[in-house]
From TrEMBL:
Record protein name field: Helix-turn-helix domain-containing protein
InterPro entries, A to Z: DNA-bd_dom_put_sf, HTH_17, SinI_DNA-bd
Species annotation: Dactylosporangium vinaceum
Pfam family, one: HTH_17
Occurrences of domain Helix-turn-helix (ranges): 8-55
Length: 168
């Protein structure tokens, strides 16, 4: 599938997005960091490639958590009442267990998010942002996926995200 003209950016537009000089963008193109196509003598860069550069991939564990929460999102939209009730119960339990206040900021963030409703929760748990990644590390959705479902998601993740070979 080809790019539409609106998806192709000039080096000047990319420089503005990256907060750098146009020459730096040209250098990124020339050294292979950014893919580009030629339009006459001009370089054009796909917006997706620029966004990938702006948003590097997460570490493997963060990606795995995102995959698990995508499955949680599916269960949550299939049965919102059950999913939200479980989250509120788990959150209350965690507040009791971790009464020292060390995770209070995350508990408060989850409570505010849960109070916004299912749509807001699904948007956040499937987002590719640092805040979403932090929230997923403190998820109140433990137990929403069965163990079988969880293992199935993890197997699918491993199949599509092979570990990088380690050098000896």
């Amino acid at each position: 599938m080809g790019s539409t003209p609106s998806e192709l950016l000039t080096t000047t537009e990319v420089a503005a997005l990256l907060h750098c000089s146009r020459q730096h963008v040209v250098n990124l193109c020339d050294n292979g960091t950014l893919s580009f196509v030629r339009a006459g003598s001009h370089r054009r860069i796909r917006r997706d490639d620029v966004e990938r550069l702006l948003r590097p991939p997460f570490r493997r564990e963060v990606e795995k958590s995102l995959w698990l929460h995508r499955a949680v999102a599916g269960k949550l939209v299939a049965d919102p009442q059950r999913g939200m009730a479980l989250a509120y119960r788990n959150l209350a339990h965690r507040r009791e267990v971790h009464s020292d206040g060390s995770a209070e900021v995350w508990f408060d963030a989850w409570e505010r998010l849960l109070d916004k409703g299912v749509d807001a929760v699904v948007d956040m748990i499937t987002a590719r942002t640092e805040v979403a990644a932090e929230l997923r590390q403190n998820t109140p959705f433990a137990g929403l996926l069965t163990e079988r479902e969880r293992l199935k998601v993890l197997a699918a993740f491993d199949a599509t995200h092979p570990r990088a070979a380690r050098s000896a």
